[in-house]
Amino acid sequence: MSTEQPARVSADGMTALGTQIFTTAGASQDEAFAISANLVNSNLSGHDSHGVVRIPRYLMWERTDNLKFGQHAEVVVDGDTFAIIEGNKGFGQVVGKEAVDIGINKAKQNGIAIIALRRAGHLGRIGRWAEEACANGLVSINFVNVSESNLVAPFGAADRRISTAPVTIGVPNPGGDDFILDFATSKVAEGKVMVALRGGKPVPEGALIDGDGKPTIDPTAMYGDLKPGDVADPRAGAGALLTMGEHKGSGLALACELLAGALTGSGTTGPGVKTHNGMFSVYFKPEILDDGHGFASGVKDYIDFVKSARPRDPDQPVMIPGDPERKSRADRTANGFEIAGAAWNSILDAGEGLGLDKEQMSATALFK
After folding, report:
1. Are residues 137 and 22 in the same domain?
2. Domain range holding 165?
3. How many structural domains comprise the chain?
4. pTM of this structure
5. Measured torsion, CA atoms of residues 211, 215, 220, 223, in degrees rounded to the nearest 10
6. What are phi and psi of 366, to 5 degrees?
7. Which of helix, strand or coil describes residue 357?
8. Residue 119 in 3-state DSSP?
9. Residues 111 and 182 in one domain
10. Residues 6 or more apart in contact with residue 219 via CB below 8 angstroms
11. pLDDT, tens digit, for every residue of 348-366?
12. What is the pLDDT of residues 112-148, one digit of tens each?
């Protein structure tokens, strides 16, 4: 039943509901589960911006041929240590994982791999792919862009010219928790603004400008005024996201566009609505650069040293990148996670539009 109250859902229940929605929309059972499980993993990791709030948008993109069910990664240029992979606008949770698996397998066999993935559907939380590389003992460096997702103003500009352009670096820590650095080069991911639009956590100060280039925290600067039932389109507003770190984040975003967009052949961002991701990734075994100096102990010892620093707030221990996600997963797996009322309603409405019953959908997903 629709309500403006937040809904607390379980991971398994929400995965089952997402799988049901995507199979009803035309995906195979395996593909629907892969998409849904990936979105739920983002919620569990504390990244609601890349979680199930995206279900209605994914369905809209599939209806408008911006995403395609049933696609797989196509290797168009292949070598022992490199590949160019065509994503064919397939769901990133499928073609992205396939591309990552190719990179991991090549690096495990040959020490290093460079993978250029182009024209993939939304790849989700990129940190997930770095976690998979680390689980296989590999360092990974990933640059991502979003073609035709002109959302972010470069430093000093009032107009949009770049995408949110994530950067992710994973370093395995054989003696402890892995280092997973994962961030959008915009001050916040676009999905966080969408969460705010749907009644979730507000947009932080300094993350948005309006159409006149003035600071704002109003998410409609990105989406314009929505009517009931509208799917939020971040291209509809006159404002823009800002980059993190001012000129430094702006420069890093441009690097993502050039590496993940231009070099892969996926295309740099600009006006349009047919978005897709490009990802330029490097995977390698640490052993190929370890001449006996003890990489593994060096990583563990330094991470332990960093985390031993006195916290400014005794209730907030010093963390490394990857720790907040691990902490969130432990809590949310056990206790479920909340979805803002408006976002929950948009998911139920999307399912109802496919012929599913709202009461049954709620019964499937809600935390018991």
Report:
1. no
2. 74-186+243-289
3. 2
4. 0.93
5. 60
6. -65, 145
7. coil
8. strand
9. yes
10. 193, 194, 196, 197, 203, 208
11. 999 999 999 999 999 999 9
12. 999 999 999 999 999 999 999 999 999 999 999 999 9
